[in-house]
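Local shape tokens

___
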Amino acid sequence: MLRFDACASAPGPQGLSHKAKSCDVGDGLGGSFDPPLGPPHGPARDAGRHRRSERRGMSLESDMEVLSEVPLFQELSRDQLRLLAFGAEHRVLRAGEILFRAEARADAGFVVASGEVHLVEGEGEARHIAMTVGRGTLLGEMALMADTRRPSSAVTATDCDFIRISRPLFRRMLQEYPEIAALLHQRIRDDFLSMANRILALSETLEFDLGDDDDAPGERRD
């Protein structure tokens, strides 16, 4: 059974343990930072800046590649992907940590850059893994466009790296590229229509099956 305790212990390297915590990083919590270093002087400072610039460039390119795998972003140009990648943040979680809980307010979407995530539904004995997703999956698509709540909990199945895209960042891209807003609106509309058609087809199938059970007891079909 999956645990959601904020202080559940998980084994660490060399037999040590760390506290697995509920990060809910999509809703304003979590994250880490490196301690500031003293300012270097002379060539060492310039070399450090150059290395940081190279790492940032490599990170942007890899983030753009991951974002291009998301169905919602597949029509975006390189410049548009770069805008998202540049303004996004990374969240790194270890296996067994909670990215967000069901019913939590959502103010950002998360793209899985690496690792696998369990989407968990239900409470108590009814708690179960609805599905497991991996690289290129966008968690919280609707959160990019409107104030909403998480429909399920997300728990890391492995060590994971996420690209966090805030709603203000996404809206800024739509403002700078209004033609994308119309394209995304059409894509979301098509997705909703497809889902509605699947639900309608399932409903008709259930009604047909129930109708077959309406025969009177003892009545034989020809």
